[in-house]
Inverse folding.
């Protein structure tokens, strides 16, 4: 990861514009640290939650998009619910993951990025997660053929994994969501 010193002046204006359109108000952060203190997985992060928000306010795009944190965030929303300024931090993490993928940045946590892509692919195609198809795609792409095999078999025996996909109504609306917002922000 690039560890060059950063300042508000050195940040990417385009990146800050993007955050603005996504209505993530990182500038209202006053660094109280409540988000970092409540995050259940922060011990695995290379940037803590509060640092992510501050770096975003500086427009430090490269530092953020190459970090492990954006992939390790479990999207549990604890940070956002603890933030006194209602900053949508889990949403910010989501935006950062998507930007990293669109810009073709090699993810710091490659298998998580593959899972993320397979999950979204399943939603885009079926309108909801089709677990068996998603797991198959993940296994093929990650080459992790044996990982979590026992867990998968246990879930299958308990009827938690269906071999057939379940489609939903309104799939075209879901596809519209995928094709719309944010497309203009590409390198
Ligand atoms: S809880 Fe909110 S205001 Fe406090 S440091 Fe985190 S983002 Fe900033
Ligand atoms: S949403 Fe992500 S960053 Fe926020 S508390 Fe949960 S795991 Fe931590």
């Amino acid at each position: 990861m690039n560890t060059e010193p950063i300042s508000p002046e050195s940040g990417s204006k385009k990146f800050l514009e993007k955050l603005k359109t996504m209505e993530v108000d990182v500038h209202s952060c006053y660094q109280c640290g409540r988000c970092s203190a409540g995050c259940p997985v922060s011990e695995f992060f290379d940037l803590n939650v509060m640092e992510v928000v501050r770096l975003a306010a500086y427009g430090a795009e490269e530092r953020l998009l190459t970090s492990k944190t954006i992939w390790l965030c479990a999207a549990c929303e604890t940070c956002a619910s603890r933030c006194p300024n209602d900053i949508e931090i889990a949403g910010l993490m989501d935006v950062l993951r998507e930007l990293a993928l669109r810009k073709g940045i090699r993810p710091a946590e490659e298998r998580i990025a593959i899972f993320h892509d397979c999950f979204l692919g399943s939603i885009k195609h079926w309108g909801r997660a089709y677990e068996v198809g998603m797991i198959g795609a993940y296994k093929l792409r990650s080459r992790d053929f044996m990982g979590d095999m026992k867990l998968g078999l246990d879930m299958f025996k308990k009827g938690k994994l269906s071999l057939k996909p379940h489609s939903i109504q309104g799939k075209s609306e879901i596809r519209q969501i995928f094709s719309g917002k944010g497309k203009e922000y590409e390198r």
Summary: Residues 110-126 form the longest helix (17 residues). The chain is about 55% helix and 0% strand. The chain has two domains: 8-102, 110-179.
